[in-house]
Design brief:
alpha/beta, three-stranded antiparallel β-sheet, 14% strand
Amino acid sequence: MEPQLTPLIESLPSTVPFVGPETLERQRNRPFRARLGANENGFGPAPSVIAAMRAAAPEVWKYCDPENFDLKAALAAHLAVTPRNVVVGEGVDTLLGLTVRQYVREGTPVVTSLGAYPTFNFHVAGFGGRLVTVPYRDDREDLDALLDAVIREKAPLVYFSNPDNPMGTWHEAAAIEAFIAALPETTLLILDEAYGETAPASALPAIDVSRRNVLRMRTFSKAYGLAGMRCGYAIGAESQITAFDKIRNHFGMNRMVQIAALAALADQPYLNTVVARIIAGRDRIAAIAARNGLAAIPSATNFVTIDCGRDGTYAASVLSGLIERDIFVRKPMAPVLDRCIRVSVGLDEELDLFDEKLTETLAALK
């Protein structure tokens, strides 16, 4: 005999949302030469961030400030809201889990797009929610279909990312504002803006914390180059944000992360430089795809999704060929979207390798 899991946990499959590049490197017994599959920012954090971390290193014997006071104050000033409208957490993934925990019980319908960010789906399953999915339309999340599903299912929660992962596409702010206006007041929208810094300004609606059914999430993992430190934040009405304090891990953030995020936020000139490099990298990946007879889907993120022009089986062969040639990339898995591979912006030398090995892979498949 042994302690028994709950029936819900017993019913869930043992699965991993993402197989990390480190896992693949252990399986292959050699490292990748280009790490272009996890949407990390290979340009790294600002030198000012590294200097702040170096100066703070002797202080790591201290716990973090459980209120995240300085970081929340800086974020509030940056966003033109109050600190009571901001909650900080260990990456958007953690904040998604805390949100689902607040609004979902066994059998609760939750609406999302088929093929959208899978970690959200794992949180829904982990709390017993019933996932309701709608397909993408023209490689973008379908706002009309999402709204129809919310109304049909009387769903208390809907998840939508803008710009989108895994396709890199986006909706303009006016379309999102119309979607929000049409939502029932009893439905909370999780608007995931992890790639907001790399999107055109026209894609981001103005922040309105008077709306009690919109929770916007952003991160330091992408444009700020701090993916390994796990720091995200949510912006919303005070009543929404206060609820997080009831269940969050108050010592979940570590002191070094707080210092790094604070320094990163302060160095907006470096952020602007990185965003320019990301835009140039997207253009280069699109040119590589075109030169090889493939089509790049226009992107507002730090990656480019490439249409391989056939079906999911062929795209999987392209993916495998690149991995065999030491290039780490990923691909969407949902039907229709699975005809593509997804390539993160990287350093020039990594994109040189990708260019060379993509040509080799496609030639081998012929």
